[in-house]
Design brief:
5-stranded mixed beta sheet; Lysozyme-like; alpha/beta; NAMLAA_amidase_2; 9 strands; Muramoyl-pentapeptide Carboxypeptidase, domain 1; two-stranded antiparallel ribbon; 9 helices; hydrolase
Length: 291
């Protein structure tokens, strides 16, 4: 009898091991969302063959690669897996965005440094037209708004410049897969500033509100210049020197709610044309002070 029980126990244990882990999926929570919070756009700085080799055999990767000719979309990493495309990065307070983003690399040379200066290469219209439906599909599936599409230079402004100043963000915005400032708002803020610019502290505060990792020193240090340049490359590509000028301020104010109601914002010049010829415009006043 004792041998019978020992044998029966062994059979049951063996059956239990064969069955393995069993998980009951009868119930599920409705309190969840996608782990994907952002889509990051890059250029590869090289041709297709080298790009494909780097992204599949090297130490970096991306979820998608878009070839230039023909403009083919390749999936290299499943979206539920982490790709290594963002590196040391930050956006809207989140850091190391590999874990929370989808990376899209576009085959593109980037720029060429020449004796006459840096020359940026144009983008293929067909390649952009291949990107737009991919972005639309990703945003829809992960329930993301167009503001969650960013460039590598946005999330890593101190070390990256892709996708560069010639990248057609406005075309993506027209397709509702990215954002762009409303022209009438930019014009209104430019007229309100009348050639002036708010202090550096204003830029730092609202660039951070928009999403950038920027110092809050109140000084125009190198890191702040890099962030301003990244913002300008995206939203004012004709001039991206990192200078905190009035046009850049107007664009930023058009993108960040309440930025133009900050105490650091320039007080309006009621009638600039009434000022004496050559007279300097009133400076932006410090908080709590009038002109």
């Amino acid at each position: 009898m004792r041998r019978f029980f020992i044998t029966l126990t062994a059979i049951l244990l063996t059956a239990g091991c064969t069955r393995g882990l069993v998980i009951d999926t009868t119930y599920s929570s409705r309190n969840h969302d996608s782990r994907v919070q952002y889509v990051v756009l890059h250029y590869t700085s090289s041709g297709f063959d080298r790009s494909l080799s780097s992204l599949t055999q090297g130490g970096v990767s991306s979820h998608y690669l878009i070839a230039e000719q023909p403009p083919t979309v390749y999936r290299l990493v499943e979206e539920n897996r982490r790709a290594w495309h963002a590196g040391d990065s930050s956006w809207q307070g989140r850091t190391w965005l590999n874990s929370t983003s989808i990376g899209i690399e576009l085959v593109h040379p980037g720029y060429t440094d020449t004796p006459a200066g840096r020359v940026w290469h144009p983008w293929s219209q067909a390649q952009i037209q291949a990107l737009i439906p991919l972005l639309a599909d990703i945003l829809q599936r992960h329930d993301l708004d167009p503001g969650r599409v960013v460039g590598h230079s946005d999330i890593a402004a101190q070390r990256k410049v892709d996708p560069g100043p010639l990248f057609p963000w406005h075309l993506l915005a027209e397709a509702n897969v990215a954002i762009w400032p409303a022209a009438h708002r930019v014009t209104a803020y430019r007229e309100e500033l009348a050639g002036r610019a708010p202090p550096i502290a204003w830029f730092q505060q609202h660039l951070q509100s928009f999403g950038y990792d920027v110092p809050r020193s109140g000084e125009l240090d190198k890191a702040t210049r890099n962030v301003i340049a990244a913002f300008q490359m995206r939203f004012r590509p004709h001039g991206h020197d990192g200078e905190p000028d009035g046009e850049t301020a107007a664009i930023l104010a058009a993108l960040v709610p309440n930025a133009a109601t900050s105490p650091l914002w320039c007080k309006p010049v009621v009638n600039p044309s009434a000022l004496p010829y050559g007279a300097p415009l009133p400076l932006c006043s410090p908080p709590g002070q009038a002109y």
